[in-house]
Amino acid sequence: EAFPAVCPVLFQMSGRGVPCLRCRGLCTGFEPHSWRKICKSCKCSQEEHGLSSELDDDLKVGLLLSGSRHSSLTARLKGGDGARIYKRNRMIVTNPNVSGKDPTFDTITYEWAPPGLTQKLAMQYMELVPPELQPVAGTEGAHTRAATAQLPLTGGAGSAWSSVSTRIPFQLHRAAKPASIRRCQPAFPGQTGSAHQPGHGAVTENPAEEGGGHGETVHLTPLTAPCPPQLCDSCHQPVPGDCPVVYADRAGYSRQWHPGCFVCCRCSEPLVDLIYFWKSGAAWCGRHYCESLRPRCTGCDEIIFSEDYQQVEGLAWHNKHFACLECETLLMGKPFTLANASLLCTTCSQSRV
């Protein structure tokens, strides 16, 4: 299976002139910086200019899942040098509206839904997600779902990495241990995947193994023994037996979460499409999992692999990016000020007063 051809140089979208969603009319339009992921004009991020597209996000997830046991969720990108794209599971729900004289139909499109579920179970899952986070097309929830922040394309050290291969930056996400990607299960309490269930929900693999994971739905087999009262692993509130919960095989099937409670342990953001990374007994988003392994440069927003870098007040910079935000003067060995995680030389700092 192949998707339509796109430019082989993936993800290189300048977006020049795109208005800022934050500054509105104050910004003259996106002006790309040579290495910072911000607008040179207003200093807002690329995300605040809405530069990430669905195609970008699906390519990122495709890179992450390609070569894993979940590669069936991807398709080969025609003309993309062997790259694979994520086959996102959208859900379209049509409800009859009989309030008027002639019946009509209301259609709701969810930009993502857990794959492999019946529509009834998928709708139950969505109803347990806070309304503002439900990925309904055209809403803030669909925008929040974007993978840009949690799965940044360039987890590697800048152009030196991307010039080798667009696949290399994602290897960091699986760097702690070379384990394959896993998937967690939306299911009812007391149910586990038959593919993983030799006994009462026992896991044949080591649940403490660290690395990446992804939301999964497999054929569900109810446990034959009575199911004791279940609690959400995050909020510690009961989970009703008739409501779906999320299982993560790296955590073991004795732990489950409400759909709205399966979040990154660092940023508390819902995990995009149930993609997670497991470390120290908790689920992480890709961004913060990377940062738990290596520091991230505050200037270029990429992971620092060198042991020679600059640190100030808990923040880190590549040596070549330890520069003034305004005039780009390198500040190593020079006086500077730090304001809102931005470096300023003394001249630019005084001009702001």
From TrEMBL:
Q: Which SUPFAM superfamilies match?
A: Glucocorticoid receptor-like (DNA-binding domain)
Q: Where is this region: Disordered?
A: 189-217
Question: Where's the LIM zinc-binding domain?
Answer: 230-295
Which keywords does this chain's UniProt record carry? LIM domain, Metal-binding, Repeat, Zinc
Instruction: Please give the Gene3D superfamilies that the UniProt record associates with this protein.
Output: Cysteine Rich Protein (2.10.110.10)
Keyword Repeat (UniProt): yes
Question: Which InterPro entries does the entry mention?
Answer: PET_domain (IPR010442), Pk/Esn/Tes (IPR047120), Znf_LIM (IPR001781)
List GO terms (cellular component aspect): nucleus
Per its record, what are the GO molecular function terms?
transcription corepressor activity; zinc ion binding
Q: Name one Pfam family in it.
A: PET
Where would I find the PET domain in this sequence? 91-202
Task: From the Swiss-Prot or TrEMBL record, give the protein name.
Answer: LMCD1 protein
The record lists the organism as Cinclus mexicanus (American dipper)
